[in-house]
Amino acid sequence: GDSVTQMEGPVTLSEEAFLTINCTYTATGYPSLFWYVQYPGEGLQLLLKATKADDKGSNKGFEATYRKETTSFHLEKGSVQVSDSAVYFCALSDRRFSGGYNKLIFGAGTRLAVHP
Amino acid sequence: DAGVTQSPTHLIKTRGQQVTLRCSPKSGHDTVSWYQQALGQGPQFIFQYYEEEERQRGNFPDRFSGHQFPNYSSELNVNALLLGDSALYLCASSLVQGANTGELFFGEGSRLTVL
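YS: structure for the whole thing
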């Protein structure tokens, strides 16, 4: 079945460092891809998304490009801040079901800790 | 505009008991999904409700059941609790018209501990 694999954490960086969190997927067909973020004590929030190959999603300085040839959707940010400390989840939407039902398949999550 | 609200936020049960968790979707949303997030893991899809019917179901036993009410709110029921049911239960709402957008709005979750 469909699945998402993320790099294991925790990822520990100093403020203003470059961030990459790797995500690869296995899917039948052409899924939509997402990054969700979970800040401490809060629910998951959609960070960015891409719905087709070569699309780039971006938000709050984060970017990810849908690479069909490598089945990847790596998350990047040029300069992280302490406030970016959170758990990041890569996910795909199974689009085989009719009616628009949005079932998401998540990776295990990658914890990011940014120090001043 | 209220987001997704869940209750209770924390609860403790013993093995064999039953639990009911509640969810009110974001205003205007008509579809509710439930996810189980074990410690250190990503959320796992339990089931999804639209028009008061279960539309999709993940790989969870029949001990897990749900309901959606006419006002779109939803309940998750778990019977005969096992230690392994200890987890954060997340409710997410969306619009069915948002086909394939995948933009789910999540509540903060109900943390269930089974002793």
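YS: worth flagging: The mean pLDDT of chain A is 91.
IM: good catch. Also The interface with chain B takes residues 4, 32, 34, 36, 41-46, 49, 51, 89, 91, 93, 95, 97, 99-109 of chain A (CB under 8 Å).
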